[in-house]
């Protein structure tokens, strides 16, 4: 019989589209317990987060003071902050969590490479685990691994990511991570055959330092989708992942909560902790 008590978790961005799903998933996980819920809407302060999200009373009030909530969480044991908020605020929130010894699981996208490097250094110095995970779904990990294999054989690749039109950042964190994984093949992609001219700026998408084009589509009716297209003379190889429900992210989120408490440094990507 295990004597370990449940892992205390704070959710930042608690009543957002992802935050609310995470709160329900935590409630159904016997080894994890919600101890804090952060949001900014002053009208919701002090209200029960379970009721705010239309679930069931959870006896955890919505708070807008991250630091107070982190201190309270830390007093309950080795605590975790799941961040599903906004690119503008995520860097500061993650730094604050590390400073208070609370392990961040970061789903929020839009962090720059420099910010990630800085957080890695900070987590290392503090010997505090931190997981940055641009995509929590297993299907995306499998697609990225297949893409890495294909990159050994194809010299031409473009990424198309498609999301709902309430998404703040472009390209998606998943697309950025996918391009970085392709770049591990250490080759130059997409050498142009002709001089290209964009008659509409941006028509060829954004280009990563490795020369991989990323195209971002934003439309109502979409959730989260990505295609990776490899081309070579006479053939096209397409990998595609579709998210039809945010439930697909929850096993990954719960896994990361369980994994991060044993870490002493920052790890980037779900694939590294599976
Ligand atoms: N890693 C993954 O697998 C996934 C990652 N994501 C990422 O998670 C993040 C959240 O996505 P989603 O739930 O769809 O977004 P939502 O906009 O639905 O939710 C974000 C929440 O964060 C709060 N918020 C917004 N701005 C700020 C800010 N500046 N400071 C603090 N809190 C803020 C908002 O509440 P309020 O303004 O009231 O505080 C809101 O409730 C995005 O970066 C998205 O890309 C999404 C899906 C999967
Ligand atoms: O904003 C979203 O919705 C999503 N964001 C993440 C990203 O930017 O890759 C993960 C997933 O695509 C959903």
TrEMBL record:
Compartments in which it is found: Cytoplasm
Origin species: Leptolyngbya subtilissima DQ-A4
Location of the Dihydrodipicolinate reductase N-terminal domain: 7-136
Catalyzed reactions: (S)-2,3,4,5-tetrahydrodipicolinate + NAD(+) + H2O = (2S,4S)-4-hydroxy-2,3,4,5-tetrahydrodipicolinate + NADH + H(+); (S)-2,3,4,5-tetrahydrodipicolinate + NADP(+) + H2O = (2S,4S)-4-hydroxy-2,3,4,5-tetrahydrodipicolinate + NADPH + H(+)
Lineage: Bacteria, Bacillati, Cyanobacteriota, Cyanophyceae, Leptolyngbyales
Residues involved in NAD(+) binding: 13-18, 107-109, 133-136
Residues forming the catalytic site: 163 (proton donor/acceptor), 167 (proton donor)
Domain of life of the source: Bacteria
A Pfam family per the record: DapB_C
Protein known as: 4-hydroxy-tetrahydrodipicolinate reductase
Gene transcribed to yield this protein: dapB
Positions annotated to bind (S)-2,3,4,5-tetrahydrodipicolinate: 164, 173-174
Keyword Protease included in the entry's annotation: no
Entry-linked PANTHER family: 4-HYDROXY-TETRAHYDRODIPICOLINATE REDUCTASE 1, CHLOROPLASTIC-RELATED (PTHR20836:SF0), DIHYDRODIPICOLINATE REDUCTASE (PTHR20836)
């Amino acid at each position: 019989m295990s004597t370990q008590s449940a892992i205390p978790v704070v959710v930042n961005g608690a009543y957002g589209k992802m935050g609310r799903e995470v709160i329900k998933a935590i409630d159904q996980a016997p080894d994890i317990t919600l101890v804090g819920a952060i949001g900014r809407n002053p009208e919701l302060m002090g209200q029960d987060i379970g009721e705010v999200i239309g679930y069931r009373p959870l006896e955890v009030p919505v708070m807008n003071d991250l630091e107070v909530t982190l201190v309270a969480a830390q007093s309950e044991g080795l605590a975790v902050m799941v961040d599903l908020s906004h690119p503008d605020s995520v860097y500061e929130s993650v730094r604050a969590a590390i400073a208070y010894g609370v392990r961040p699981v970061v789903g929020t996208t839009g962090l720059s490479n420099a910010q990630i490097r800085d957080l890695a250094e900070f987590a290392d110095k503090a010997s505090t685990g931190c997981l940055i995970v641009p995509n929590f779904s297993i299907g995306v990990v499998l697609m990225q691994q297949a893409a890495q294999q294909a990159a050994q054989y194809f010299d031409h690749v473009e990424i198309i990511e498609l999301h709902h039109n309430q998404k703040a950042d472009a390209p998606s964190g998943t697309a950025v991570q996918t391009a970085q994984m392709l770049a591990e093949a250490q080759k130059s992609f997409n050498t142009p055959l002709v001089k290209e001219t964009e008659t509409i700026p941006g028509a060829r998408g954004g280009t990563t330092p490795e020369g991989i084009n990323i195209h971002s589509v934003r439309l109502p009716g979409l959730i989260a989708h990505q295609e990776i297209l490899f081309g070579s003379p006479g053939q096209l190889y397409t990998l595609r992942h579709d998210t039809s429900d945010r439930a697909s992210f929850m096993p990954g989120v719960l896994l990361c909560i369980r994994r991060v408490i044993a870490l002493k440094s920052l790890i980037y990507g779900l694939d590294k902790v599976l």
